[in-house]
Amino acid sequence: MGYAPVCDRTRRWAPDVSAVDAVVVGAGPNGLVAANLLAERGWRVVVLEAGATPGGGVRSTELIEPGYVNDVCSAFYPLGAASPVLASLRLEEHGLRWLHAPLVVAHPALDGSCPVLSRDLEVTARSLDEDHPGDGDAWRALYDRWLRLEGALLGALFTPFPPVGALARFARRMSPREYVEFARFSLLPVRRLGEEQFRGAAARRLIAGSALHADLPPEGTMSGFFGWLMCSLGQSVGFPVPAGGAGSLTAALVHRLESFGGRVECNAAVREVIVRGDRAVAVQTHAGDVVDAARAVVADVSAPVLYRSLLHEEDLPPAFRARLSQFQWDNGTVKVDWNLDGPIPWTAAPARAAGTVHLAESVDALTRTMAELVCGEIPREPFLIVGQQSMTDPSRQPAGRETAWAYTHVPHPERSPVSTDPGVIAKLVDTMEDVVESHAPGFRELIRGRHVLTPSGFQTENASLVGGAINGGTAQLHQQLVFRPVPGLGRAETPIRGLFLGSASAHPGGGVHGGPGANAARAAVLHARLDRRLGRVRRSR
């Protein structure tokens, strides 16, 4: 079984008397990636985690009953499988093993259509042609564009902004005219992209549902790019899961870190980042322990948690505090885990072979859902992302049984108190089960038990997931690139020397891929090198 390593202590943790070079606040995937990259350079690194186990939102356990392994928060990782950051860590040497379902994604509708994504291009194309002949070729053309630009795009996504090297690779692969055309393509709303590229409703529904993984409305700028990105990743690397559960990915990161001499300390919640002379020099835990950081502090926490909770107001420039007030959360999340007496009995046969199933009847239905969220309302027809683990990893449940889950979005609690009402959430969970039942008659009869994670429950599991905002802040264009987490940054550096933001609130944003953590580690190394050079200059003078 692939559980996250448990570092619960019967004793209260106390820091070593020896100094460390870097303190990483938070043992989520970004924090662990940053710690790994610093430790492999010879830095002495300690990761302080508030919870009893590392992993943040990447953990697994038996939530409902023994013998059924559930993923606590996140579950499948296309960005992780494609990430050059994680690839560079060679986590397979530390126990990680990716598993795939026969089909990547299915998106059934009650009219009987069910487009699919498969790692076999011909299977994907045939499923789109079933709805409208010619849509298969349209997808082949879109995927060919991905294959031409994949390296440059991934380089741009997973490196600090501006991605100079990636832009140079783009320039070599496209003529000026093609560059302009791609710029327009990247900005298209997914509704418009679907209308331009496909004739059938099924293909449009498939790519629009994928765009909502980034919490972008069908009419949102760049939602077409994210729909194309997620479908292309599904086509190329799938939506894989770690063998044994999400915690296996965390276990591999921790094992690798320890092999380089780093360590993770749990039950060590940080109360404050200590700043002296405009520089982060230490952290203090809630227990009162002070851990000095000789070179850097990396924060794998959301931007508001770092700047409003772990720092004093006077530590930050007034202009920066004003910009921080513009920070926008993404929507909240409700997730239901089920243990089932058998696989979900989908009416659409392809859904019975897919690891991930999207449930929304049309692009119009997705638009209505997002409009209700914007208005602070619980969607009447929620869009569901459903996972079923027996398709990928039979070890997670007894033979013939199933562990499944579904999540949907609700308004962020800071914008609408309706998302904190237990009665409202209970009704939403019932609606979610009705949606699955409508596509899989008999589903309810298979339920052995359920576990519900509310927006506040996400925050309890991981303090950085404030109100169930799993993306670390909205992914809309006004809070991406140089606008993330506030206008003018777009990098891991903060207004305080020696302090680096390495969470999903920083570029390139949400998803389990290690990009923000890697950027923070690179920035810490660069600034430490500059500090040494400046120190030598001062001494010589």
Strand residue percentage: 15-25%
Largest sheet: 7 strands, mixed
| CATH superfamily caption of the domain at 20-77 and 243-327 and 473-540 | FAD/NAD(P)-binding domain
Write the CATH architecture name of the domain at 20-77 and 243-327 and 473-540.
Answer: 3-Layer(bba) Sandwich
Number of helices: 17
Could you give the count of β-strands? 18
Explain this structure.
α1 packs across α17 (515-540), α5 (135-157) packs antiparallel against α6 (164-173) and α8 packs antiparallel against α9 (201-211). Among the domains are: 20-77 and 243-327 and 473-540, 3-Layer(bba) Sandwich (FAD/NAD(P)-binding domain); 331-470, Guanine Nucleotide Dissociation Inhibitor, domain 2 (2-Layer Sandwich), CATH 3.30.519. A hairpin with a 2-residue loop joins β10 and β11. Strands 1, 2, 9, 10, 11, 12 and 18 form a seven-stranded mixed β-sheet that branches. The protein has 541 residues and is an alpha/beta fold. It is globular. It is built from 17 helices and 18 strands. The protein is 37% helix and 17% strand. The N and C termini lie far apart (60 Å).
List the helices and strands and how they pair.
Layout: E1 20-25, H1 29-39, E2 45-48, E3 60-61, E4 70-71, H2 78-82, H3 84-89, E5 98-99, E6 103-106, E7 116-117, H4 121-131, H5 135-157, H6 164-173, H7 176-187, H8 190-197, H9 201-211, H10 223-236, E8 241-242, H11 247-259, E9 263-265, E10 270-276, E11 279-285, E12 290-299, H12 303-310, H13 318-324, E13 332-340, E14 354-359, H14 363-374, E15 384-388, E16 402-410, H15 422-439, E17 447-453, H16 455-461, E18 499-501, H17 515-540
Parallel strand pairs: 1-2, 1-12, 2-9, 6-14, 12-18
Antiparallel strand pairs: 3-4, 5-8, 6-7, 10-11, 11-12, 13-16, 13-17, 14-15, 15-16
